[in-house]
Structure formats: structure tokens, C-alpha cells
UniProtKB/TrEMBL annotation:
UniProt keyword annotations, A-Z: Hydrolase
Broadest EC class assigned to this enzyme: hydrolase
InterPro entries (UniProt xref): 4-hydroxybenzoyl-CoA_TE, HotDog_dom_sf
Native species: Sphingomonas echinoides
Protein name per Swiss-Prot or TrEMBL: Thioesterase family protein
Length: 138
């Protein structure tokens, strides 16, 4: 069953800490660091909106990341990731994360994740009331 959700999203802003280890030989953030940032931002989004019971009984694994790099990121940049859950289908969740320096878009990331039962580590659907927490009310 496809769960089509409201086009109004509850976004989450996540401040990114850039470490010297993130910088590559060209003097900007290495592409691999973006993956860690997206993972940290999406998990932070989940922790912000999910109720305590869902946090205790569910875990997430990334299935796919598609990153479009727009501009390089540097050590002293102040960077924010804005995360939103676009839709949920079964045990899968589809996220969009925009990484920005001020108004400049540095990267756009589309990712899909699988929700797991924290005990069995098998795919698990979220309850409707949990899903609804991630979408703004009219």
C-alpha cells in the first residue's frame, strides 16, 4: 500500500560541524564527508519528530544516496542541512536534504532509507500516527 502524504513538510535544520579531517587535498570538503553529514542530519530529524516509543523500537539504514554537488565547502564555512521527509512507502522513507552556506546551495541529496525493527533488524512499517508527526498540519 502506498502512503501518499501531504505536500506540507515539517523541515528540520541541522548545523554541520566541519572538521579539519573533512578537508581533502584540494582544500575543500571531501565528497565522502557529505554522506556522514546526511546520515547525521536524517537521524537527527528522526529523533526530533518521532515519539520516544518509536525511537526505542526502530532503527534506520540508508539504502541509497544521490548527491548533486553545487559548490565547494570549506573548513570555516557555517553550513546548515535542511532535512525533509518527502514520503513513506511501506518500510521505506524518502528524504531530501539541502546543504547550504547562507543562501548558497552547496549540495542537494536525495536518499532512501529502510526502517528496521530494532530487535529483529527486519524491515518494519511505521504506524500512521508516527508518520504524521513528520508532516506539517494544515
Amino acid at each position: 500500500m502506498t502512503e501518499c502524504l501531504s505536500p506540507k513538510f515539517a523541515t528540520h535544520s541541522f548545523a554541520i560541524a566541519i572538521d579539519a579531517a573533512d578537508i581533502d587535498f584540494m582544500g575543500h570538503v571531501n565528497n565522502a564527508s557529505y554522506l556522514k553529514w546526511v546520515q547525521d542530519a536524517v537521524i537527527s530529524h528522526w529523533q526530533r519528530f518521532a515519539p520516544a516509543e518509536a525511537l526505542a523500537t526502530h532503527a534506520w539504514v540508508a539504502l541509497k544516496h544521490e548527491i548533486t554537488y553545487r559548490k565547494p565547502t570549506f573548513l570555516d564555512d557555517e553550513v546548515i542541512a535542511t532535512v525533509l521527509l518527502e514520503k513513506v512507502q511501506g518500510a521505506r522513507a524518502f528524504y531530501e536534504t539541502i546543504i547550504k552556506r547562507g543562501e548558497e546551495v552547496l549540495a542537494e541529496v536525495k536518499s532512501s532509507w529502510c526502517c528496521l525493527d530494532a530487535t529483529t533488524l527486519r524491515p518494519a512499517r511505521l504506524a500512521r500516527d508516527v508518520i504524521d508527526r513528520f508532516f506539517a498540519k494544515d
